[in-house]
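Example record

The entry below shows one chain as it appears in the dataset: sequence first, then structure tokens.
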Amino acid sequence: MMLSKATEYALRGLIYLAAQTPGEPVLSRDVAKYLGTPNQCVTKIFRTLAKRGLLESVKGRGGGFMLMPGAEKLNILDVVEAVEGHSSALHCILGLKVCADETACPVHCQWAHLRLQEMDMLRKHTIGAMAHALFAVSACA
């Protein structure tokens, strides 16, 4: 699966937020600095995530973004679907409109198997676990 830049930034941004002090809003410019991307990009993505219930947006002095309670349990697939707005259903690698077991393209069986493995992997890894793994290692260095 190729992730869009928006999905990549959302995923990395959520992981960063999960590593911050719970209940304390983080400025989008701080997240943008961490990601190495423009602040407007992060703000736009985070507003989308707030509308979808993954983030809380706190306005005014001391405001910013923070994870909604329980958001650390979201997995990669949840984030992909929140940003891209669709389910990652099986699709034909050749782009054929009709590609099923009965009318399979030449690589249908192998692609379907790989796609199922990919979906399992995306469901397995949570935001919280990735934040712990990424930032626990950094803290020890």
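Notes for this example: The first strand starts at residue 55 and ends at 58. The chain has a mean pLDDT of 87.
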